[in-house]
Amino acid sequence: MSLLAEDTGVADLGLRWKPGFHALGPAFLTDLRPTPLPDPYWVGRSEAVARDLGLPPDWHSSHATLAALTGSLPIAGTSPFATVYSGHQFGVWAGQLGDGRAIMLGETEGGLEVQLKGAGRTPYSRGGDGRAVLRSSIREFLCSEAMHGLGIPTTRALCVTGSDARIYREEVESAAVVTRVAPSFVRFGHFEHFAANQREDELRALADYVIDRYYPACHTTERFGGNAYAAFLEAVSERTAALLAQWQAVGFCHGVMNTDNMSILGLTIDYGPFQFLDGFDPRHICNHSDTNGRYAFNQQPNVAYWNLFCLAQALLPLIGDQEVAVAALESYKTVFPNEFEGRMRAKLGLAEAAEGDRPLIEGVLKLLAAGKVDYTIFWRRLSGFMADGNVEPVRDLFLDREGFDAWMLSFSERHASTDRALAAKLMRRTNPKFVLRNHLGQQAIEASQQKDHSGVATLLAVLQTPFEEHPGADAYAGFPPDWASTIEISCSS
Ligand code: AMP
Ligand code: MG
């Protein structure tokens, strides 16, 4: 299906496109074209996303598609554009930002927006080159698919394509483009942009568009006296709370929770210096540029609330009443702890809530933190214990054996009347065997930089179904090597 009509110089992906966000008009975006990159090559592809998009099975077989997804050839039926947004970065108002290197191809008839990240400069690039380096593109690609595999809401990635074009960061690196896919890439920052510029008509148009498309129930709500915008804010707060509960339960640190990196759909978006925790350290800072630890792991739930407050501020002209806006945010404070407790209970193999669960959860987290115990391995081994009754592999992880034994006693008491086989099953589909640890990504990246992209494909296959055993892939499930702690990931990508 992927044809290059020689006379038109256009690639046809075999997809149908609809206006989508573009229909909002020029106040929201700028029409443009991606800037070509020379001699593109495939780095990684997700067939799962290709299927979701409705691409034909041979979608990747033509050079035209490869060129088109690297921004070097127009795609039939699309009119690419970049959108404008603003935002708070590291707690400070940053003014206008926008898609500085992500170019939207459009929205498919199936309702998925497709973006090329790293496809060249836009009017919102500010000083940047509009490019993304291979290293960070592989990280975004793998992590999007890993998060989806974990059941965590996220933008997806169809593929990474590379080019040997030179990109200047701290060192010279090679370029890449990630084809990102999501129902919507609208961020809190889109709303902040029009609110800050006192453009109430555009603010309303944007809110109406997002509500119509993604939160239609808000139009007929009876909450807040039928105030659709307050109901919208509440719904976004709840989705964000649920997302944060999932991040905290799996040990995911985002690293740059600026308001322009917060999805209005409650998706994980903009993978930069993210990290899955190795040893459990609640104060872990994964972003080398975050010197004050604003986005430390244990700060994330509060930062999300702070960001929602910025969104509330932006929506205030539409909501019309400050008290109502504050009330709409309130649900975050109950949804987050409830969702978090529910997720942690499942990790403990507990299908039902009971009194005393909270101290059990807090107790284990305290123990894990005290010993900086490997977070993923602990939970997987605990799942193994539930299945076979052998506590030693779990106990071995702790130096404080006494503390562990005491916690284990209350854990076993709580499970006194549990069907252990059932609980083990629940735990094994809640506690992943595989997460995208920094060093795993790094190994795949280094091989790719030497033109061996097989590591990206192998890692992807494991991360897409991270709860399965994958015999033979145990190297991806082990402790991180010593050098893992020396990997420095910053905003520069
Ligand atoms: P981030 O923190 O990566 O989400 O990026 C913050 C802002 O900087 C966004 O508006 C990006 O589009 C923009 N940006 C980041 N890197 C580049 C780049 N290399 N060229 C142009 N804009 C960029
Ligand atoms: Mg961003």
From TrEMBL:
Q: What class of enzyme is it?
A: transferase
One GO molecular function term of this record is:
magnesium ion binding
Q: Which key words are in the record? A: ATP-binding, Magnesium, Manganese, Metal-binding, Nucleotide-binding, Nucleotidyltransferase, Transferase
Transmembrane annotation, as ranges: none
In terms of superkingdom, the source organism counts as Bacteria
Catalytic residues, chain numbering: D260
Residues annotated to bind ATP: G98, G100, R101, K117, D129, G130, R180, R187, D270
What is catalyzed by this enzyme? L-seryl-[protein] + UTP = O-(5'-uridylyl)-L-seryl-[protein] + diphosphate; L-tyrosyl-[protein] + UTP = O-(5'-uridylyl)-L-tyrosyl-[protein] + diphosphate; L-tyrosyl-[protein] + ATP = O-(5'-adenylyl)-L-tyrosyl-[protein] + diphosphate; L-threonyl-[protein] + ATP = 3-O-(5'-adenylyl)-L-threonyl-[protein] + diphosphate
Q: Which cofactor does it need?
A: Mg(2+); Mn(2+)
Q: Which InterPro entries match?
A: SelO
Binding residues for Mg(2+): N261, D270
**EC number(s) for this protein?**
2.7.7.-, 2.7.7.108
The record's listing under NCBIfam families reads: PRK00029.1
Q: What does this protein do?
A: Nucleotidyltransferase involved in the post-translational modification of proteins. It can catalyze the addition of adenosine monophosphate (AMP) or uridine monophosphate (UMP) to a protein, resulting in modifications known as AMPylation and UMPylation.
**Family recorded in the similarity comment:** Belongs to the SELO family.
HAMAP family, per the entry: SelO (MF_00692)
What is this protein identified as?
Protein nucleotidyltransferase YdiU
What organism is this sequence from? Answer: Variovorax gossypii
